[in-house]
Amino acid sequence: MKVVKWILAIGLTLVVGVTVYLTMFFDLNNFKPQIVDAVKKQTGRDLQITQDLSWSIFPSLGIKLGGISLSNPDGFTPVSMLDVNEAVANVALMPLFSQQIEVDLLKLDGLTLNLVTQKDGETSFDGLTAEKSIETPQSATSNSEAVSLQTLDIGGIELTNTNINLIDMASNTTQTFSLKSFTLGQFSLGQFADFAYEFSATLPDMQLASSGQGKIKVDQALNNITINDFAMVHKASGDSLPGKTVTAELTTQMTMALDAKTLELQLTKMSAMTLAATGDIKVNYGNSIPKIVMNLDVGDIDVDALLPKQEGDAKETEGTPETAPSQEPDLSALKSVDLTLNLTAKSIKVSNMLTQNWQMKMAINKGILNLSSLTADLYEGKLALSAKLDGRKAVPTYQFDKKLTGVNIRPLLIDAAEVDLISGTASFEVNGSGSSLLPDNLKKNLDAVGKFEVADGSLYGVNIPQMIRSAQQKLKGDLSADNKEELKTDFTSLTGSFTMKDAVVTNPDLAMASPLIRLSGKGTANIASEALDYTLTTSVVGSLSGQGDADESLKGVNIPLTIKGTFQEPKFGIDTKALLEGQFKDEADKAKEKLKDGLFKKLGL
Peptide bond before 411: cis, by omega within 30 degrees of 0? Predict the structure, then answer.
């Protein structure tokens, strides 16, 4: 027992002696001029420490600093690059002798960082980077031994009132990021510790605010970091945002392996406006370009609601054409992305067009975006799409293969293009390629081939049997004949193939069949001007009136039909000359039959 008492007494005496020496005979302020001179010599900057450096004794040994300021380069505004109001570090003394660090408190208050970029590109960091000394294997070994720890215990960390100002003199903009507070509770290696933060930012067109809390654990080897139940709430406000305010919530679990350079996130909750999603994200940042793999499952996405609404007086904007971009979008960022995305969605609405049950596989690597597969339910049918976008050159190129099967075509065209022209169950195939993403060039540079088939549908805006019947009646002298029936032509099938080049769709083999008529022909549709130009031939095969007593005079007569106008307002025309020739043919045939009958009677046949 005496030995133990002596050891404790010696240890206590040692602690007291060191403390007394440090606080009474070792004045930290004696080193302030040396520190200021060293910073000036190394960086050319002025360092100011306006408050005295002081020791804190109870309840643990610590150092307190305040009034610290580091200048920006000469000619910069603000003059100060770094300001610190107060910094405190309290460390238990005895554990240091056995390579154990027990920090009672780390506190930093009032840090302000002004990072300026001048018009000539000079920044606040210029001149701060010192040349790295060559490290020998022996020094590397000694350094690694110096930082190896048996334990690391921290009573708490407090960061308050931290502000970072990003000042761009060229654009005359300032972005401010403020960390109001960051706190870390009792922390030990291998144990979870509570943490929380409160953050805000002021951007040129937006205000951001974020707060969150969770639990963090660092393993004994300082290689693995685990964060559980990390719940965050983000709020953004600005005129460019939908409703001028957006709130997003995120809850995640995260693991980070520093030795393997990997990061994994489990998104247990992600919501913003009407968007909700779950999934996981894996990142390998060991290469020059981090490899990212994302698996996301989202609910209903209304892209139209997420986009900001255009405000303004409709009368003022009416008739004013929108200015199309004159330069290709810069896709060089795709070269620095290695992303694999697997996405499933309950429904997605874009430009008023609704799709359900999305299954998408996409990858971006070395400047190429490859949409290997996209399937979705589309207006009672199915969509299948694959595409590739090459952004490695100044003018992007692309190719695609698209198929629609069993689609209810009328509501699709109304929602997608506000075109009410045709109904029925449609199947559609097209593959093509092109270059440039400028709107005008997209139309001009696209080369495509495809085919279509529509079953049991109708053409809207025209009643072809009624047009023929009305024209025929007028030729017979009934000038009161008029179009009183619905402007709709029913058909059992409508088929054709097409090619697209120089913004013109060419359809050489349009064919339509119905119980009353047969229609065939060819034509073009100009995607740029939306102009239609079709020449068709109509053959009557049934009763035009739908009744048994209809005039059969036009059966077998080919009647030219034209379609002009635009997608929005197609204009249908009929060749009355053919009707007249058909009428003459009918009368001639009747006269021939009558003459033949009379001749047979005279001959007694």
Answer: no
Q: Do residues 400 and 374 make contact, with C-beta atoms less than 8 angstroms apart?
A: no
> How many helices (H) and strands (E) in the chain?
9, 29
Task: Return phi, psi of residue 542, to 5°.
Answer: -145, -170
Q: Which of 99, 94, 29, 40 is nearest to 65 (CA)?
A: 29
pTM of the model: 0.71
Express each pLDDT in 361-404 by its tens digit: 999 999 999 999 999 999 999 999 999 999 999 999 999 999 99
Q: Which of 493, 473, 475, 492 is nearest to 484 (CA)?
A: 473
Express each pLDDT in 273-314 by its tens digit. Answer: 888 999 999 999 988 899 999 999 999 988 877 665 555 444
Residue 368 to residues 275, 331, 355, 601, Cα–Cα distance (Å): 28, 9, 26, 86
Query: What is the C-alpha separation between 269 and 247, in angstroms, rounded?
Result: 14
Report whether 529 contacts 504 (CB < 8 A). Answer: no
Are 522 and 534 spatial neighbours (Cβ–Cβ below 8 Å)? Answer: yes
Spatial contact of 385 and 371, defined as CB atoms under 8 Å apart: yes
What is the bridge-based pairing of β-strands 206-218 and 187-188? Answer: unpaired
Q: What are phi and psi of 321, to 5 degrees?
A: -70, 145
Contact 460, 487 (CB under 8 A): yes
Comparing CA positions, the residue from 556, 575, 506, 514 lying closest to residue 534 is 506
- Provide the pLDDT for residue 25: 45
pLDDT in tens, 241-268: 877 888 999 999 999 999 999 999 999 9
Amino acid at 210: S
Alpha carbons 555 and 197: distance in angstroms, whole number: 84
Contact between 277 and 252 (Cβ < 8 Å): no
CA 596 – CA 605 distance, rounded (Å): 11
Whether 145 has a pLDDT exceeding 50, the answer reads no
Residues contacting 377, CB < 8 A, separation 6+:
355, 356, 357, 383
Count of CB atoms situated within 10 Å of the CB of 37 = 11
Dump pLDDT digits (tens) for 79-114.
999 898 888 877 665 555 555 556 677 888 998 999
Range of weakest confidence among 197-211, 441-455, 535-549, 567-581: 535-549
Single-letter residue type at 84: V
Phi-psi region of 596 (alpha: psi -120 to 50; beta: other; left: phi over 0): alpha
User: From CA 524, how far away is CA 507, in angstroms rounded?
Assistant: 6
